[in-house]
Structures
1.
Amino acid sequence: MSEIAAASKPKKTTIVVFSGDWDKALAVFNIANAAAASGHQVTLFFCLWGTVLLKKPARFKGPNILTKLFSVLRPGGPAGISRLDMGRTGRWMFKKLLRDTGAATLEELMESARDLGVEFIVCDLSLNVLGIKKEDLRWCDEVVGAGTYVAHATESQVNLFI
Amino acid sequence: MEATDADLVVDCTGLQCPMPIVEMAKGIRKLAVGNILRIDTDAEALQSDVPSWCKTTGHELVGEETKADTTSYFIRKASE
């Protein structure tokens, strides 16, 4: 057995999921799956646009007019691609290219990550600011603050911000 | 190494990154320590990813065999 695997404590990967962009989310879940499949304990810390990525689509929801308006603009789920979205055309082209290549979809990667035991923790401040409740999210293991992220990151050998 | 030497065969042909290593991880979980997993793939990246995955997880790459576009990797489970 290699020296790495012989270490008593499992290795850990933590990723800050800040962006809700569809292509960036693809990178997050690709790496999260690879790390979990390599025996790492994986924690994803969703904040700001990342929390919207986890939100079940719903419009006109929120405790006040601004959050209600926001939920119309961004009802939930992944946003467009970060470059060349071209009013959804780029997104469509990119998805088609992925499908033609036989690559897993974002949805498949997200579900696979859950199957492999990837932990989803969500920023408390982001939920409050955007008027999103824990029960509005598709998956959420825990609502936490930045201190929890720092604790996870401190123990991690792989730590990314996407 | 012959195909019959494997205790479990997982066909990953057609799968793209990162799904072959996800299937490898799922396959290895089903085996007992010392058993051999065979992964069949046509993804070129696995030439690098299989040894890397073995280095990270501690499982042992004991052989590989290429026929046409498909490569079979034989991995011995080292620990639970």
2.
Amino acid sequence: MKKSLAAILVWIAVALLGSAALGGIALNRGESINALWFITAALCVYAIAYRFYATWIATKVLLIDPTRATPAERLDNGRDYIPTNRWIVFGHHFAAIAGPGPLVGPTLAAQFGYLPGTLWILFGAVLGGCVQDMVTLFYSTRRNGRSLGQMARDELGAIGGIAALTTTLFIMIILIAVLGLVVVNAMKHSPWATSTVAATIPIAMLVGLYMRTIRPGRVLEGSLLGVILLLLAVAGGGWIEHQPGLREFFDHPGLPLAWVVIAYGFAAAILPVWLLLAPRDYLSTYMKLGTIILLMLAIVWMQPSVKMPAFTQFVDGTGPIFGGKLFPFVFITIACGAISGFHALIASGTTPKLLSNERDIRMIGFGGMALESFVAVMAIIAATVLDPGVFFAINSPAGVVGKEAADAVAKISSWGFPVTVAQMNLLAQQMGEATLFARTGGAPSLAVGMASIFGSAFGQGMLAMWYHFAIMFEAIFILTTLDAGTRVGRFMLQDMLGNIWKPLGRTSWYPSVLLSSGIIVAAWGYFLYIGVIDPNGGVNILWPLFGISNQILAAIALCVATGILVKSDKLKHAWITALPLVWLIIITSSAAWEKITSTDVRIGFLAAANDLATKLASGLLSPEKAAIAPQLIFNQRLDAVLTLFFVCMLWLIVFDMLRVCIRYLNGKPVPPLSEVSYQLTGMEEAWVRD
Amino acid sequence: MGSGLTERSANKSMSAVNDSSLPVFETAQDIHQHIAQSATLRTNKTCIELLPLLSYVWRAIRELSGDNAYERYIAQHAASYPDTTPLARKDFFLYQQQQKWSGIQRCC
């Protein structure tokens, strides 16, 4: 009794603290605000949601049953089905879901001010993303770890399955292209960044050889070796930067770098995994976890001030980083960190095959996403601690603010965010870069933000080192996602092609490997190429497209979950997934509508294509712009078609889900629940818990 | 494994006590009494208590990184299929990586 009273008091205190912090962030209109308030608000929101909402969903809606044997226990084979300690599963799950998305999206969305992004990250995560991950993990666990696509087919029908599969393939292509663009923009004319990123490839191969031949399977030894070499590579890049004759070798504009990334992507897809992909993934996982912990410590210790206002005037849709109003574009710009459909693929992949007890689903599904959301909060802090003028100077494409530094600072200052050429030059010099103007894509500004936080915590003298460490850290796991995504895309394509001609479906048949890898690389390579030649930077086109497709994948996952809830006679609780689903349908449909029909050339794909076509026809373009105009026009039209395709897929599966639900409620036959029947767990409580 | 380590370190610290110029203890009770009084030995005691924690952390790191995957596989194999030969370490490692990267493993 006493204990429960104490617990009640503690939770009331958490709620009060959280509301105070949120209120402080929301109502602050002063000069600046301490970043610690963001951390406090976030932790309180996650704690309350986890303790009450997640527990309620687990015990009252999903009816999680700790006595039920999990697939890992029933099918234990020591290879892919392995009952595993929940902290270990949590680590694997988090490493899999946390990629570059929660770092890039919030950085771009900071153009609206700090408040919209922060609120969406917090509430989108606890009401949408965490619920999606947890429910998908639960349903997949109850189905022997079946994938989202298989569950869609089993529970809704063939249409649902096909929609899930094709959307996944397309989103993968867009995702890889946009991530490739982020890396290319970070390396553009930066010998330091380029040489460091280039060095990660032989380092990974060395580690791969070490783990395969020299000391087979000694993952920790190999990783330690790799991490040391990576840090040396960052320092070595600084040395190359100052070597005339050598630095030119790594000093390239965007287009050649894009070709290198494309060629690299193809090579990585056909090389054996042990040589490049697997070892680099080990390195990127340690770098990712280490850097995130370091960033959190530095923020808590230094308590930097957030200088960006709560809202900027760009909520009206005139923002320089990407066009479009606050609604719906903040919600699709920040996908990962709030709700990300991609997570449903992870939650229905490896993770359910490792769970030793259903009880762990709350912590791994809900908790894992809450932690990823926290990474997004830190990214928004890193973006908003910069002077807003500096933030916009780094992130605004030359096509919007002008190619000349003087024009850019004049334009940005005229928006009310003062910045000078001298200030930008000094900053570039401190960071060891030639220029920081128009370094779009989010990675450079995040790196500047991280370097300034780390620099103030651990010494200003190392700014350039921190900057390039941050670039290397982003590049290394972007490249991992790029390789892994290309491979998965290849497998999915081979699976589809196998239906046309059997041998094409054989994943080890070399001609098929080359063909399908080539198709996937060509697909994302095309978008990467167009993004690089686009004078507006490409990110402003590709990122919204990625956001829309990722949110639509989330909507598909929520459709599957809602359908299962209704079919399990839980109609009265179906709102836990239906509510975020409705919100996703609203934001993706309205964003898609605007991207297709808007007459504003910075928002509408077709408007931009037509505008460019008119200018081309009337000879208004300079010769160099006229040369690329036909490609840009075609690309904008293609993007419009793709957007339409995504929305059609969404509505198709929504109607399919509604059809199944209505039939079920009217007592008509529907595909039966594919849940595996109950089996009592034979595992002793202490076995995995030790 | 954890308890083994504790015992070993406990023995070590006891011999350290014997080697030093400290009074020689006749019974275990004497030692406990002395530990209760001596600040240096109290630190030693904390060290002894820390060791299981460190070994736990080390095991967690190995498990999380997959460093002990082969040992786990061997243990599982011995329990479930005692009549067949398990894969060699290198083959298991390659198989495992191939398996892992055939599905969606990394996200945006």
3.
Amino acid sequence: MAAVLPDWLSPQQFSTAIDEMANAIGKQWVIHDGDPKLRSYRDSFSTLPGDANVPSAVIAPDGIEDIQAILKIANEYRVPLWPISTGRNFAYGGPAPRMPGYVVLDLKRMNRILEVNEEYAYALVEPGVSYFQLYEYLQKNNIKLWIDPAAPGWGGIVGNTLEHGVGYTPYGDHFMMHCGMEVVLPDGTLFRTGQGSLPETESWQVFQYGFGPILDGVFSQSNFGIVTKMGMWLMPEPPGYMPFLITYENEDDLAIITETVRPLKVNMVIPNGAFTVDLLWDAAVKVSKRQYYSGKGPIPDSARKKIMSDYKLGQWNFYAALYGPPPMMENTLQVIRDTLGAIPGARLWTAEERKHDAAFQYRAKLMRGEPNMTEFGLMNWVGGGGHINFSPISPTTGEDAMRQYEMIKKRSHEYGFDYIGEFAVGWRDMHHVYMLMFDRTDEEERQRAHELFGLLIDEAAAAGYGEYRTHLAFMDQVAKTYSWNDHALWKLNERLKDAFDPNGILAPGKQGIWPAHMREKHSWTS
Amino acid sequence: MDKLISTIGLALLLGSVALPGTAEERPRSGEESWYLFCEGCHRPDAEGPGAVMLQRRYGDERMAIKGSTTLAPEYITHVVRNGLLEMAPLRPTDITDAELDLLIDFLATPANPVD
């Protein structure tokens, strides 16, 4: 099957460019010409049709010089490149490019752990390093540092951080915990941020700010450069660890839970990412929907009650952990008992009491930085693999939590899907993640899920909620909602795009930022 | 308290460790690929969502793929390269063809009874 190509490239130009890239880095690391392995770069889980967003080619460099050689050729022929690190951004697009026909720049071969410093507690890594890989390295070398993995441990440290991913330990805001980047610009310029620009520095991974403007953020969720190295702060292993779960009986308990969590988080009584998880998110790791309900549409309340009783779960299930010397943890636990534990109907569970509970166990592992894949069990709820995440942000208030929950649940049920969600409180903000699960093998259901997602974006924006991250298919729509002062921010993003990448070769359309030569056709800002 | 102080002391002693980076040895062993890409979902217990799904569909005896005698190498190759429903495919930069052969050999060896 002939590859779909960007419409400004002739098959001859494309073929010449790919041949030149293959000559530059070795043809064994170039996949093209209808090779069936190209299909492994599609998004296996999205609301788009199966063959949407298949790249025209994949090229996998192994270092800065390879990347610079590829960029030179891409600039010459205007070949659009789509960089991925480990390509596990599932629910948001996975390894797939924004448009079919782009060339995926697969950085997975660049997976060196360049340095681990136990004294200052950091690692310096390349984009291809996965959470599993760094965890194994620390274990084998008996280094007493914790990583903070995303829920699926096969994801990458650099990619997740650049996408503003969150984790479960006290280091759960990944971008906040990064320190120092090395970046290649589309024209091949190589530079380092922060203290990394001082030739003799020992401070690149211990001080984030350097001298002058802090540019790191410009290279997150953007298409302005390729991050080739990144420092990540790691948490020293504490002398004690105490994960816990509190179950709540009623749906509207979400309001008081959230109101109670806010001061505990703002004052750092709860040190890690605090998650209020709905019943089905927790249950789906253990049971499938059809074990409780064989009809169509969302699972009825009677079945929900049965699941709660069978698995000793709440309508809401609050997970967090304490860290430190045992006497300190015991004191803090008493504060938790007197606050979150004092809500009527609350029951606090210890690790010992839930030692045979797979959902508790995987969260207990995540909160102590042990990567795993257990949360992928959510996909067994309906089967078929389809899932896409809707992730609006709000302040941590009971009113906002209930408003978002009711709004999304109502639409979700109206469209025939279960509400499956969780509220993550990092510090002051709340990430609400609604996982829209659907059967990808059912064409009508897939399209219905797609329609629902688009509706949720606009309704949330009208209520003042914006997404912190989204799937490829909805990047323009979400970008459009950040419209203050006539889309001034995205117009500035376009000016930056033109300055960093005048030929528009790097990830065109990423986060709704289109290069000049594609703007007329795609952009919504002008 | 003594134990706590000695723990902190030990941490300080070890604190000067700064390891240089290491390049991985390739091709990876089958066991290493299993750890990086398979075991998370296919550990044969309630925390392995792939294993749980196989158990639900085909029963206890087909739950574990490690040590399975019923999986043909061609079938494993097909599923790894193309994915299957909830399982996303692995890409050539995750696992090369040579490494996939090593992984298939590793899967065919009986699981450690201690597991």
